[in-house]
Amino acid sequence: MRIFKKLKLARNAALLLAAAFALAPAAQDGRINWYFSKPGGNARPTVLDGKYEPESYGALYLGPEGEKKIYLTFDAGYANENLEKVLDVLEKHRAKAAFFILPGIIKNSKSTVQRMIDGGHTVCNHSTHHGDVSKITDINALKAELEGVETAYREAFGRELARYFRPPEGAFSVKTLQMLKELGYSPVFWSYAYADWDNAKQPDPEKSKAALLDAAHDGMVLLLHPNSATNAAILDPLLTEWEKQGYTFGTLDELKAKTG
After folding, report:
1. The domain spanning residue 176 has which CATH number?
2. Which of 36, 119, 189, 242 sits CB 3.0–4.6 Å from 45 for a disulfide?
3. For 153-209, how does the pLDDT look when each residue is reduced to its tens digit (9 = 90+)?
4. How many domains does the chain have?
């Protein structure tokens, strides 16, 4: 009986350990997957369950409490008609946004990136290869991943890319944050995002609009994909409603000055 009891205890311990690893945001290799709570009702969320203190490395993900400001950020790996519509809406509302880009959009859609520049938007780094940067442990390798976009942007437009970086898929490690800080980059995450990236499986526009209005909060850093047909359809009424509610739209430079 004692043997069976010991086996049962060992089995339970193993199950608890497996569950802990399944729930932990950081894997054994150091990878952390960015996540946030969804309190709704325009309440401010928590990120990473309050762990890791990414702000100590200059990470930006939430603005000050008590300030009705939303920071619009877009991950723009490529251009399509929806991205152009998004730029039209931003121009209509005189709202500035941040666009995190890959080299491909510079090569294939230079005029679209020029529109971002001409519109006063912040054009930022989303990596050269859109891979898992949490696996990069050598600072020179990470520097090369950043420089691929920097060089393409410099050669195409004769200017420097803004030194803000969004890790693809929100995957990073503490080492990633340390290296980015040493390289003079501010990592940018978010306090709200939703499943908008699959062009073949777009969410319902009305449900998406309702969810975004319910999620809006002081200092929200909103991640959207501008290639999304749903986002292109709802962005104008969203911004209109947020303006009616007293929200204004801030830039990453403003956010960094207030929280960095």
Report:
1. 3.20.20.370
2. 36
3. 999 999 999 999 999 999 999 999 999 999 999 999 999 999 999 999 999 999 999
4. 1
